[in-house]
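Worked example 2:
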Amino acid sequence: MRPVATELNSLTWPEVPPAGSVLVVPVGSVEQHGPHLPLDTDTRVAAVIARRAVERIASAPGPDGAVVLAPALPYGASGEHEDFPGTVSIGTAALELVLVELGRSASRWAARIAFVNGHGGNLDALRAATALLRYEGRDAAWFPCVFPGGDAHAGETETSVLLAHAPATVRGDRIEPGETAPIGALLDRLRAGGVAAVVPNGVLGDPTAATAARGAELLDGAVDRLVGALGRWTVGADGRLR
């Protein structure tokens, strides 16, 4: 029997799969992504990777069970971007509480909870929330939407992904380089003053070389990694799906 893929927000309660299902929850942010990408870039990225992974799992032969795609959590911990208009951050403590309560509630009917994260600033909340949920006996984990070799923020990597997934959201006439120094060399300044203190346009990278073809490759790789991680369900000491 093939797993059943469903979208939680379109179901009625009698249609919710029985115990044994995996709830996949995209987690994003509302924050500046330079002058050319939408404020919900991280949420879009997490949501499309989660959706494609769930669809692929449903289409392949496998054991009994169900994979349920939850609506994305659109707000995250984005304090480093708050000097830019439009950014809305709920902070680490609030995000942690949301994730814990979501996990506690969903675990009443779902066997496992997988948070698919699109924003690096959410990591502290994800680690703390999954640690508490697992301590309480709930099988929760998180998975990062990372792209090996990618730049830090609103650069070639994220711009390529949006060009592949949602090209109408990319303001091509506003694409411009930002700060291209390695992120390790910028950390002290970022921690001290946030992104605006490092680069006025909010871009950590160079999006001018972005292409839809590259974005499609990046998305395919991320989906492959998430499908594999959900199938193995190997959870590290930090709560990350391996």
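Residues 77 and 122 are 5 Å apart (CA to CA). The first strand starts at residue 4 and ends at 7.
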